[in-house]
Write a structure and sequence with these properties.
- It is a single chain.
- By secondary structure, the chain is an alpha/beta fold.
- It contains 14 helices and 21 strands.
- Helices cover 36% and strands 21% of the residues.
- It is elongated, with a radius of gyration of 25 Å.
- It binds cytidine-5'-triphosphate (CTP).
- The site of cytidine-5'-triphosphate (CTP) has 14 residues, from helix 12 and strand 16.
Length: 420
């Protein structure tokens, strides 16, 4: 599973640092190439020599490494090792960056982009997925600052494992212990599997609100922030996909590294979607599309009068349903359903009426436009309610399920072909 993968293990200065020795061994047992990076504080707890022996590679303890030291790397990672600036090299080579144990201080520095040592510099420079296993005293874990920092890390896409609960070195008991090594290894496996899961595939995501003009200065719109769709685009990008993001009106900037196509109205979205979906492996319609537009847009600004104003609205096309009707073989279509009543039944109706493969059912328990979401994933076989999670975590779960369904469709086709 981890053969030919470079796992960089960042060890920061906590009592649990010794447990990282076992983690390194386990990762190597699974075939990974391991490079250990230690903060100066970590070296107070465990000697670099121990990690060098266990990993079979030089240990990075300084920002500007010894150029004579060379890592033993899988073939495909070698060209990336330039050997001039060690922390940049290591950041580039990493397939996954695990920080275990992650102290409250290292977590705070990672969140704020403060990088005085090799570990935090790599955290800042790497594009690899991060697995963070916090370990600290109970009160430090519970501190509002740490909890805010954890939320930020999660929202940026890091996988957080633990902490586990139990007796702590301080004599207190509660959450703060480093997670079980098995759980950290499993998170590394998942992160690696995800990173390459959409490599080279085209994923189209729509996000944000439509704006239907009333006159040259006024629009009909909705409260969608675009955050959910942007998180999906970002997560797909990080899995190696080529992403086209159809972006309507949003409250935030689109992620970098994706092709952005802007739309205003539902008709513009429809035209952009029809162009973009050709050859796409997945199409995810997270946009909040206005069901109606103003039948006759006023050419000049409407003037106020004392009388009631009546606007005649005409229905917009259902973009998702149109895509469903013309869905190409092997293309996976995901829709959203925002429901305030009979949620599950309505989501199922949308699944079949729009010929989608997966519906993300959203009941606005957390309001609209926040950073967390409570959703249920509904497909033809089952419905799974996810716990409240950051939009990035929800995005990962949607892509996991969509990938599973796509795999299953491919497998079904292959079996049918075999039978034929
Ligand atoms: N959608 C679409 N075109 C529309 C309306 C919705 O493509 N004109 C898509 C949305 O992007 C979403 C899904 O359809 O993926 C469901 O959107 P939602 O607003 O929940 O449902 P509607 O189809 O508009 O149905 P209703 O408003 O009656 O609940």
């Amino acid at each position: 599973m981890l053969r030919d993968r470079v796992v960089v293990v960042g060890v920061s200065g906590g009592i649990a640092a010794y447990k990282a020795c076992e983690l390194v061994r386990r990762l190597r047992d699974r075939g990974a190439t391991v490079i250990v990076v230690m903060t100066p504080a970590a070296q107070e707890f465990v000697g670099a020599l121990t990690f060098q022996a266990l990993s079979g590679n030089p240990v990075v303890t300084h920002m500007w490494g010894d150029q004579k030291q060379r890592f033993t790397l899988p073939l495909e990672s070698r060209p990336k090792q330039r050997g001039h600036v060690e922390h940049v090299d290591v950041a580039e080579i990493a397939d996954v960056f695990v920080i275990a144990p992650a102290t409250a201080d290292v977590i705070a520095r990672m969140v704020h982009g403060v990088a005085p040592d090799a570990l935090t510099a790599i955290a800042l420079a790497t594009r690899a997925p991060m697995v963070v296993a916090p370990a600290m005293d109970l009160q430090m874990w519970r501190a509002a600052a740490t909890q805010d920092n954890m939320r930020t890390l999660r929202a940026r896409g890091a996988t957080v494992v633990g902490p586990a609960s139990g007796a702590l070195a301080s004599g207190l008991a509660g959450p703060g212990r480093l997670a079980e090594i098995d759980d950290i290894v499993a998170a590394v496996d998942r992160a690696v599997a995800r990173t390459h899961s959409l490599r080279g595939q085209h994923v189209v995501v729509s996000a944000g609100a439509t704006q239907e003009p009333i006159d040259p200065v006024r629009v009909l719109t909705n409260r969608s922030s675009g955050k959910m769709g942007f998180a999906i685009a970002e997560a797909a990008r990080d899995r190696g996909a080529k992403v086209t993001l159809l972006a309507g009106h949003t409250s935030i900037e689109p992620p970098h590294g994706v092709a952005v196509v802007r739309f205003g109205t539902a008709l513009e979205l429809q035209a952009a979607a029809q162009r973009a979906v050709k050859g796409a492996a997945m199409v995810i319609m997270a946009a909040a599309v206005g069901d109606y537009r103003v039948a006759k847009v006023a050419a000049q600004k409407l003037k106020r009068s004392g009388d009631d104003l009546t606007l005649r609205l005409t229905p917009n096309p259902d973009v998702l349903a149109a895509l469903g009707a013309k869905k190409a073989k092997g293309q996976l279509l995901v829709g959203f359903a925002l429901e305030t009543q009979n949620a599950l039944a309505n989501a199922r109706k949308k699944l079949s009426a729009k010929r989608a493969d997966l519906i993300v059912l959203n009941t606005p328990q957390d309001g609209i436009g926040g950073d967390t979401n409570v959703v249920t994933l509904v497909d033809a076989d089952m419905s799974v309610q996810l716990p409240r999670a950051s939009k990035r975590e929800v995005a990962e779960a949607i892509l996991d399920r969509a990938s599973d369904l796509r795999g299953a469709t491919g497998a079904k086709r292959a079996t049918r072909k075999q039978r034929a």
